[in-house]
Amino acid sequence: MDSGLATAMESGRSIATHPGSTLAFVQVFTLRGETALPSYGDRYWKDCQGNDETFGKHKWDKQGACINTLSAECCSGYSSGELVDYFRITVDSFKTLEPYKFLQTDPGGLLVFIMPSSTKNYTSTAIQNALTAAHGFRVTI
């Protein structure tokens, strides 16, 4: 496997396995020398049905195409790595939002107590109310 295969996959817009290969979605990151993003995604970019790789592929196929419209001269050191760029920008933006903080406390200081858990479930209404309080307007989840 080489970076040419990763480029072919990216330029084809869909990251489904390249015909004739077994290259997985996460391997594109490895071929581009990016190991931190997949590790971060394993922890924070979760699929509600438990198939995280399919979720990442879906996000790229659905929204990643937008980054392909950027001019190469707009990105310093650009080297045809749209998939990695898209997820790096997405993760960097996510890190500025502090979503867990939004779910734990509203602006008035009232604790909402919505915490990541493998044993407790929260209703979508409770999550939506916490996010609405934090943002100051109704949010869609």
TrEMBL record:
Gene Ontology MF, one: RNA binding
Domain of life assignment: Eukaryota
Gene Ontology CC annotations of this record: extracellular region
Signal peptide: none
One Gene Ontology biological process: RNA catabolic process
PANTHER family in the cross-refs: RIBONUCLEASE T2 (PTHR11240)
Family: Belongs to the RNase T2 family.
Name this polypeptide is given: Uncharacterized protein
Organism: Tuber aestivum (summer truffle)
